[in-house]
Design a protein that fits this description.
Elements: H1 12-17, E1 24-30, E2 43-48, E3 56-57, H2 63-72, E4 79-84, H3 110-118, H4 123-133, H5 141-146, H6 158-174, E5 178-179, E6 193-197, H7 200-206, H8 219-234, H9 241-249, H10 254-260, H11 275-281
Parallel strand pairs: 1-4, 4-6, 5-6
Antiparallel strand pairs: 1-2, 2-3
Helix pairs in contact: 2-6, 3-6, 4-6, 8-9
Length: 285
């Protein structure tokens, strides 16, 4: 049984855009679920959303550094949206028939599931427990809505799902940081800092831009990265020349994904019939 949605969980556009004009900083986070503490592989791009300000790119950081940066942003007098490229939740379908051993009893909530995920020592141990429930990899409602490439427990992405929930989202929620739309202020107030899930592939598809073929070595991927940079600039993103050059030559496209994530949020309202589901599974912005 899922909880009833709060009034704020029914409209994604209001949640993301209900902030003061001129002081909203959007951070695009290309996340890493690497085993070695996140290494220093996370890329962050940021800009002031309501102004034609240049994109700023931070140096690579690890997951501890990302968590600190998000918490510290609540003290600078501005409002912040941190858009992270990693699944924030799991499909309710996974728990429709069997409640895993160790999961809290009662209604299924995002926190109930997140705390169960965090109880495992490693991503592989958690994925093994998921596969004991079912060897299928169902997709969330938001995965179907935004055509995300992979289900949260897929072999190519499960480490990101596990680490973002255990090392980033749960500690942030405990620190009072709002997580869209799964852990929001109960009084309906607009938070100073909000964290939401983003997906570069979904953003590119939403704009009818090249969503495949831009990662990898060689001429074809490099040309596609160059085209995406051109499209981002045409869309109003002011990308400094040195940042553009680095993004074009980055074969893994980590920096390019971070740049894609500082575009305007998709602004798709959560359908009323999916509001309760999104409050548990999360949503893509």
């Amino acid at each position: 049984m899922v909880p009833s949605p709060s009034p704020r969980s029914s409209n994604a556009r209001d949640q993301i855009h209900g902030v003061s004009k001129g002081h909203l900083i959007v951070h695009g986070v290309d996340f890493s679920g690497a085993d070695s503490g996140g290494s220093a592989k996370i890329r962050i791009a940021e800009r002031e959303l309501s102004a034609r300000s240049c994109v700023y790119v931070r140096g690579r950081i690890d997951r501890n550094g990302l968590r600190r940066a998000i918490i510290e942003s609540s003290t600078d007098g501005r409002q912040h949206v941190w858009r992270i490229d990693a699944p924030f939740g799991l499909p309710l379908e996974c728990f429709a028939e069997t409640r895993p051993e160790g999961m809290a009893s009662g209604d299924l909530t995002w926190r109930t599931i997140a705390e169960w995920v965090a109880s495992f020592d490693s991503a592989r141990e958690w994925r093994g427990a998921m596969r004991e429930l079912s060897r299928r990899e169902p997709r969330r409602a938001c995965d179907r809505e935004f055509r995300t490439p992979l289900a949260p427990m897929n072999l190519r992405i499960f480490k990101q799902t596990f680490t973002v929930i255990k090392e980033i989202l749960l500690p942030l929620a405990d620190a009072g940081i709002a997580i869209e739309p799964v852990s929001m202020p109960s009084d309906g107030s607009v938070p100073v800092v909000r964290v939401c899930e983003g997906c570069p592939a979904s953003i590119l598809q939403n704009r009818d831009w090249p969503a495949k073929g831009y990662k990898g070595a060689g001429e074809p991927p490099r040309v596609v990265r160059e085209e995406i940079i051109r499209l981002l600039r045409t869309d109003g993103l002011e990308i400094p020349s040195q940042v553009a050059v680095e993004a074009i030559h980055d074969q893994e496209a980590d920096l390019l994904d971070a740049l894609i994530l500082v575009t305007k949020p998709l602004g798709v309202a959560i359908p009323g019939e999916l509001a309760a589901t999104a409050a548990v599974e999360a949503w893509v912005y």
